Amino acid sequence: MPVVTGRFAEARLYLRYCTTLLHPGRPLPTFAEPAPSTGNHDHLQEDDLTLLIEEGRRQLDRQAADLDRIRNRAGALATVSLALTSAAVAKSADILTRHWLIVAAWALSCVLAVLAVAGATAVLAGQAVFGRTDTRLAAQGPSPTRKYLAAGYIEQVSTGEETVRTFLTVFRDAVTLAVTSALIFLIVLASTLHSTRTDRTEPTCPTSMTCSQPTHPKSTVHSPPHRRPLPEPSTPPPSRQSTTTAPACCSAP
Questions:
Q1: Residues of the chain with pLDDT under 70
Q2: How far apart are CA 60 and CA 149, in angstroms?
Q3: What is the DSSP letter of 45?
Q4: How far, in Å, CA of 160 to CA of 59, rounded?
Q5: Which of 2, 3, 191, 204 gives the lowest tally of CB atoms within 10 Å of its CB?
Q6: What are 3's strand-pairing partners?
Q7: What is the C-alpha separation between 37 and 232, in angstroms, rounded?
């Protein structure tokens, strides 16, 4: 079983789980090797061995049930993350025309959503390593068989515990990525709506404005009814001045 340790081990292990989708069948890594059993079981009585075998079976069943619950939740998370990715991609036409900070936040939200989908899908489709007992091999094992079975269960339960712990950690990281992506996407949507409302409320000034004075209806002057023009006063004809000629007898000498 491969192991991922060192600095940023959790992030590197998560990316390893995401890349296993491209290489199916590859064994998934864990954080640590299963702890080996170093105890001596020779002093155990028959009843003690029977109790160990029963407890080992219960623990293996519990590990399988825990993995089933984690995978069921991972299936729901994959569906939600895929819907979130689709919603983010559907808004690309509107967001790519905005400010570069909004575009960068939207791109980060898309990347986180895709990583959440990949992690949840890896939990669903990944090959989990569990310890199991092969009845045929147990029958061919050394005697006494009960002691051999008890030792086998003690070795196997540690493998299952490490597998469940790793799958649960990957699922938790996928949830964190999906929630972070959703919050960033909501902030981007809020910023987009705010900028849209701001653009709509700003007054638009036309380049050319013609101001025309209000036109009032022309006042109509009612002219008096048509009258026949009065004839002009006729000027009397010039009077003929009488010229009087003095008689010859009255003329001076």
A1: 1, 35-42, 133-144, 195-253
A2: 14
A3: -
A4: 9
A5: 204
A6: 30
A7: 148
